[in-house]
Design goal:
By secondary structure, the protein is of the alpha/beta class. The strands form 2 sheets. The protein has a 7-stranded parallel beta sheet with strand order 3-2-1-4-5-6-9, with helices on both faces. A two-stranded parallel sheet has the order 7-8. The radius of gyration is 18 Å and the shape is globular. It binds NADPH dihydro-nicotinamide-adenine-dinucleotide phosphate and 2-hydroxyethylsulfonic acid. NADPH dihydro-nicotinamide-adenine-dinucleotide phosphate (NDP) binds next to helix 1, helix 4 and helix 6.
Length: about 250
């Protein structure tokens, strides 16, 4: 049976690398993101290999998400994997210095957007049944607190718990759910987080070995292509050269 992957945030980073990985595996693709030019480029690159349907979409807009899913051509409706990847971090500063709008943007994208897409695509996954999967991009930040993580980490904690709770409602349907939780990976993520500060992004990744978009795409594809009876609940992945910091202690000056 033909396999279709529906990927949000396919214009960059993990989403774009996942599109390429699924195409290499022969899957048809539904690709979305806000940047139409990048979607066109990716379609041009991949459509000689597999059928590709692109849709410009802001996941925060529930009505637009539903309309996009309703408008899917018949060949792209038997969705086997939904990769809920669109997301972002903003405001890498202490909570007390954050602009409120940045918190709202993270909540609207990482939580509301992911919920919008899941709600719209779930009926198609249920029709697919056995072997279908929802693969949500969480983060190590959803499990481990760090300075400047505030709403970003909290939004990814939502992704983890939402993934687990979906599992509780889906027994008997064959639909699997996984929270993939990467650590530091070099994509456009830090450029977005710093609102375009290329130096800050380069500095973060310099002198170490971050994960790559392709590393995570490989994990997404692995989860999507496991035998139907296997569900990985959560997959946390860090670069070997990243680990945890000690607890911070506020000490009196002596
Ligand atoms: P990128 O910035 O490279 O890609 C993010 C993607 O999300 C882009 O394609 C962007 O597309 C899309 N996106 C953002 N906002 C919206 C929106 N409102 N509507 C639709 N699409 C949107 O980052 P990554 O590839 O690194 O991040 C992908 C996911 O992985 C995110 O959820 C991120 O939180 C998570 N993650 C990233 C880690 C990292 O270190 N890089 C580690 C752990 C998790 P466009 O701008 O065209 O809309
Ligand atoms: C992104 C990874 O380490 O910046 O989710 O939180 S990290």
């Amino acid at each position: 049976m033909k396999k279709v992957a529906f990927i949000t945030g396919a214009t960059s980073g993990f989403g774009r690398a996942a599109a390429r990985r699924f195409a290499a595996g022969g899957w048809s693709l539904v690709l979305s993101g806000r940047r139409a030019d990048r979607l066109e480029e990716l379609k041009k690159e991949l459509s000689d290999k597999v059928p590709v349907y692109i849709a410009t979409l802001d996941v925060r807009d529930a009505a637009a998400v539903q309309a996009m899913v309703d408008a899917l051509p018949a060949d792209f409706r038997p969705i086997r994997s939904l990769v809920n990847n669109a997301g972002l971090a903003l405001a890498p500063v202490p909570a007390q210095k954050v602009e409120l709008q940045d918190w709202h943007t993270m909540i609207d994208t990482n939580i509301t957007g992911l919920v919008n897409v899941t709600h719209a695509v779930l009926p198609l996954l249920l029709e697919t049944g056995a072997g279908a999967s929802i693969i949500n991009l969480g983060s190590v930040a959803g499990q481990w607190p760090y300075p400047g993580g505030h709403v970003y980490g909290a939004s990814k904690a939502f992704v983890q718990q939402f993934s687990y709770n979906l599992r509780c409602d889906l027994p008997g349907t064959g639909v699997r759910v996984t929270d993939i939780a990467p650590g530091m990976a070099e994509t456009e993520f830090t450029l977005v987080r710093t609102k375009g500060d290329q130096d800050a992004s380069d500095k973060l990744y310099r002198g170490t070995t971050p994960l790559t978009a392709e590393d995570i795409a490989e994990q997404i594809y692995y989860v999507a292509t496991l035998p139907d009876h296997i569900n990985i609940n959560r997959l946390e992945i860090m670069p070997t050269r990243q680990s945890w910091a000690p607890f911070a202690i506020d000490r009196d000056k002596t």
